[in-house]
Write a structure and sequence with these properties.
five-stranded mixed β-sheet; binds dioxothiomolybdenum(VI) ion; binds the ligand Nc1nc2c(c(=O)[nH]1)N[C@H]1C(S)=C(S)[C@@H](COP(=O)(O)O)O[C@H]1N2; binds 6-methyl-3,9-dihydro-2H-purin-2-one; 13% strand; single chain; alpha/beta; globular; 42% helix
């Protein structure tokens, strides 16, 4: 195979230089043809013949060049030859890790893994890849369906003035963290002790999985993480998939074992955001007020349950987004398919649920020929409204976010400009959308809403702070340092966070649900307050003293200078069994720079979800075909809006959270659906001009192919017919 490629390459080079050589010659000769030599050359038969041949030669070589290059690049493009002759590793089935190879170095291990021959006995049943396949084959994770009912949708729908039905689908999304899954396991050499350094959002789960798989008690395994190069939910559970085999190898060999996945391996085995399908029926009156909504949600869970149930719960919780709907039923079920198990991804089912109701809003506006913004404004929640999960909305700043965003974005004026532009252009359209978001901050699983911290103050006055949250680039450690500095009333540079580790803070929840700073922040606050209480008599005795002096005094008075902190979120929770915002309101932001960064980053990641990123699978056996940046496009610098205005709502303290700050990690991602609906708005204009009226669905992501197909017009019809 290498030889084949080598000759192909050689051939291409030879032709390139051949052409190039002739071009040089030609370039050298041709100016001479324009000088006094011209008469001489053209007079001599030979030379002029040569010139003619040269021109022809160039032309012929040009033809040959392309004729030749084509066969030489075939091995790089046609799968059939690829499958026969090239890189069997690429076609390794890899939806489920079934073995691991340990070697002295990465290259050896990867080559050895290619030698593994797996004989598959094809399963009797059909290959189930998509949600539709699962529906057709009744393949679901039974017993985990989720449903919330509010009012009486069966009575309200038939009495509605108008009823619309629709189906909306959203593709999954690859986490594409810059640092792929990585783990290092080092045996301590006695009592079965093991030290696991892992790039994970969930050190306690890695500790538990490693202990279980080795039959050790958890107190023999330490899992630590200093920071991750991105997680986005992809390292909430999936990092254990790498840590377990590496721990088995290390324990058996009693040697350190390290594993870091290549990008293609990571994309083939670690799963993505859950693809969703929604079938909905909406009842509304002629003013655009929604009176009834009935939604059936399906998610693609892949080949294990993982976090799929919690993700479906959150989708059901967020089906209302920011709108008051009097009669609502939302039922959700997780499909069981032959894909790598899908998992958490920033928003955790929230974006998928909210995208459905935003699609409904757009449908209602199109049907009534109203401005979507007006329909949304009409249905927005007001202070004191009650959601379908029986939560009364207090401190509801939605109306302020909504009106400030309209004012800052000059939506009225822009709407007029866009409509004028669209009237003047047939094949170039612009659109606009304004989208709210209401995002529930807390783990839906009640017991996860807890956090711990550990504070050591050393005799020199320096503080070592450890908390249960992991740093993945979201700036959690910075915020925790701020909390400690403010509550201990000392400068930040006296405090240091070294790492997150299970032997410092045990039984931690994953850093997820955007609750990292809320939960750990309160635990850090708790620990610091305990310390400050102990120092009260010391500070009274020496009110002019410095921090260092107080610590020295405390030490010599044998007052403990170390303490843990703990926090659990009060009065939250929803029991399914009995069925009980581009202007972001983040309370009083702890760190506006970090928060604006999170809003910008989350928005751009959402841009990827709704307009660019689409994981693709082979329809025959579910192999992941999108394995790297060559055919999976995440947003890049040129996808970031040149004019990108983020503003945080002022003066709205939130009494429920640490220093009144609210979470910011996940909510901003969904705001990028405004780009999706702006594109839909532009398509609507194109369809109207092509004489096509009425509702239409464009599924997410709104890739250029989908946009083109949605702009149905006679050209498309001809192409489809042909
Ligand atoms: N730079 C960066 N920001 C990020 C992420 C990340 O991996 N990298 N993860 C997001 C996700 S999925 C979550 S849940 C939150 C977690 O951090 P927090 O709980 O401290 O907000 O950060 C969000 N912002
Ligand atoms: C486990 C979990 N529960 C939630 O409610 N939200 C989340 N985001 C990421 N992970 C989670
Ligand atoms: O909550 Mo983030 O880890 S999906």
């Amino acid at each position: 195979d290498k030889l084949f490629q080598f000759f192909a390459l050689l051939n291409i080079l030879a032709f390139m230089f051949g052409i190039w050589g002739f071009n040089i010659l030609n370039a050298a000769l041709s100016p001479m043809l324009r000088t006094k030599w011209k008469r001489y050359i053209l007079r001599t038969k030979v030379l002029s013949a040569f010139v003619v041949i040269l021109k022809m030669q160039n032309f012929i070589l040009g033809i040959l060049y392309f004729a030749n290059v084509i066969p030489c690049i075939i091995p790089y493009i046609s799968p059939s030859i690829m499958r026969k002759r090239y890189r069997p590793r690429i076609f390794r089935i890899s939806t489920q890790v079934i073995a691991c190879v340990v070697a002295d170095n990465l290259a050896l291990a990867q080559r050895a893994s290619r030698l593994v021959k797996v004989t598959y006995r094809p399963s009797a049943g059909p290959t189930i890849i998509t949600i539709q396949d699962a529906i057709d084959n009744n393949s679901f994770y039974e017993g985990h369906a989720r449903q919330i009912i509010k009012g009486n949708v069966d009575a309200a729908l038939p009495n509605a003035q108008h009823v619309l039905e629709g189906t909306f689908q959203m593709a999954g999304q690859e986490h594409f963290y810059l640092e792929t899954q990585a783990v290092l396991v080092v045996p301590k050499g006695e009592d079965g002790e093991l030290d696991v350094t892992c790039s994970t959002q969930n050190p306690s789960e890695v500790q538990q999985v490693v202990a279980e798989v080795l039959g050790l008690p958890a107190n023999r395994v330490v899992c630590r993480v200093k920071r991750m190069g991105g997680g986005f939910g992809g390292k909430e559970t999936r990092s254990a998939m790498l840590a377990a085999p590496a721990a088995v190898a290390s324990f058996r060999l009693q040697r350190p074992v390290r594993c870091m996945l290549d990008r293609d391996e990571d994309m083939m085995i670690t799963g993505t955001r859950h693809p969703f399908m929604a079938r909905y029926k909406v009842g509304f009156d002629s003013t655009g007020k929604i009176t009834a909504l009935d939604v059936q949600l399906f998610s693609n869970g892949g080949n294990t349950m993982d976090l799929s149930r919690g993700i479906m719960e959150r989708a059901v919780f967020h089906i209302d987004n920011a709108y008051q709907i009097d009669n609502l039923r939302c039922h959700g079920i997780v499909c069981r398919t032959n894909l790598p198990s899908n998992t958490a991804f920033r928003g955790f089912g929230g974006p998928q649920g909210m995208a459905v109701i935003e699609n409904v809003m757009t449908d209602v506006a199109t049907y009534l020929n109203m401005d979507p913004l007006a329909v949304r404004s009409l249905n927005l929640y007001r202070e004191g409204d009650e959601t379908h999960y029986n939560q009364r909305l207090e401190y509801c700043t939605l109306d302020r976010c909504w009106s400030e965003c309209q004012a800052l974005a000059r939506t009225d004026q822009r709407r007029k400009e866009i409509d004028n532009f669209n009237r003047a252009h047939r094949f170039k359209k612009r659109g606009m959308a304004l989208i709210p978001t209401k995002f529930g901050i807390a783990f839906t699983a009640l017991f996860l809403n807890q956090a711990g911290a550990l504070v050591h103050v050393y005799k020199d006055g320096s503080v070592l702070l450890t908390h249960g949250g992991t740093e993945m680039g979201q700036g959690l450690h910075t915020k925790m340092l701020q909390v400690a500095s403010r509550s201990l009333n000392i400068p930040v540079d006296l405090i240091f966070i070294s790492e997150t580790s299970t032997d410092k803070v045990p039984n931690t929840s994953p850093t997820a649900a955007s609750a990292g700073s809320d939960l750990n922040g309160m635990a850090v606050l708790n620990a610091c307050q305990i310390l400050m209480d102990r120092l009260v008599p010391i500070r009274k005795a020496n009110p002019e003293g410095t921090w260092q002096q107080w610590i020295q005094d405390a030490y010599f008075q044998r007052i403990s200078l170390s303490t843990t902190g703990f926090y659990k979120t009060p009065d939250i929770g929803y029991d399914f069994s009995i069925e009980d915002g581009i202007v972001m309101d983040l309370g009083e932001s702890l760190n506006p720079a970090i928060d604006i960064g999170q809003v910008e980053g989350g928005f751009v990641q959402g841009l990827g979800l709704f307009t660019l990123e689409e994981p693709l699978f082979s329809p025959s056996n579910g192999q992941v075909m999108t394995r790297g940046p060559s055919n999976y496009k995440i947003p890049s610098a040129d996808d970031i809006p040149e004019e990108f205005n983020v503003s945080l709502l002022r003066g709205c303290p939130n009494p429920h959270a640490v220093y009144s700050s609210k979470a910011v990690g996940e909510p901003p991602l969904f705001l990028a659906s405004s780009v999706f609906f702006a594109i839909k708005d532009a398509i609507h204009s194109a369809r109207t001009e092509a004489g096509i009226t009425g509702n239409f669905t464009i599924n997410s992501p709104a890739t250029s192919e989908r946009i083109r197909m949605a702009c149905e017009d006679d050209l498309i019809r001809k192409v489809i017919f042909f």
